[in-house]
Automatic annotation (TrEMBL):
InterPro entries associated with the record: SecE_bac (IPR005807), SecE_sf (IPR038379), Translocase_SecE/Sec61-g (IPR001901)
GO cellular component terms, semicolon-separated: plasma membrane
Family: Belongs to the SecE/SEC61-gamma family.
This protein's UniProt keywords: Cell membrane, Membrane, Protein transport, Translocation, Transmembrane, Transmembrane helix, Transport
One Pfam family recorded for the sequence: SecE
Localization (cell): Membrane
Full protein name: Protein translocase subunit SecE
Biological processes annotated in GO: intracellular protein transmembrane transport; protein secretion; protein targeting; protein transport by the Sec complex
Annotated TM spans: 16-33, 40-60, 89-109
Protein's UniProt keywords contain Transit peptide: no
Gene transcribed to yield this protein: secE
Main location, first listed in the record: membrane
MF terms (GO), sorted A to Z: protein transmembrane transporter activity
Superkingdom of source: Bacteria
Length: 126
């Protein structure tokens, strides 16, 4: 799926499933604010349940199935990543800080040299 073309929703069934999922999301938000007299955990539970149902409905469409396949592939790829050790991360960070300090000094010296050349040599200001 590296260079897969952009997929569009083609069938009426897919459009309907995604529309229902969108309406469920809106209903979840409305329910959250409608239940303002209830305890917070009841309100959060209501919106979470409705969002899970919306995700399930959306996953039934071709677009949702494609997204789930993409998510599974992405999860597999994250498992293949070779993460740096603590020592490697510390060394890389130290190199970056050293480079930043060297560049800051270089730019400061360049700025002061140009300032001196312009104001002292060219304009004759003291």
């Amino acid at each position: 799926m590296a260079n897969s073309p952009v997929e569009t929703v083609r069938t009426t069934g897919d459009k309907l499933l995604l529309a229902v999922a969108g309406l469920l999301v809106v209903a979840g938000v409305v329910a959250f604010y409608t239940l303002e007299q209830q305890a917070l955990y009841v309100r959060v539970a209501a919106i979470v349940v409705i969002l899970v149902i919306a995700a399930f409905v959306a996953s039934m469409s071709q677009t949702g199935k494609g997204f789930l396949a993409f998510a599974k592939d992405a999860y597999k790829e994250v498992g293949k990543v070779v993460w740096p050790t603590r020592k490697e991360a510390a060394q890389t960070t130290a190199i970056v800080f050293a480079f930043v300090i060297v560049m800051a000094l270089y730019l400061w010296i360049s700025d002061k040299t140009i300032e001196w050349a312009v104001f002292s040599l060219i304009l004759g200001w003291k």
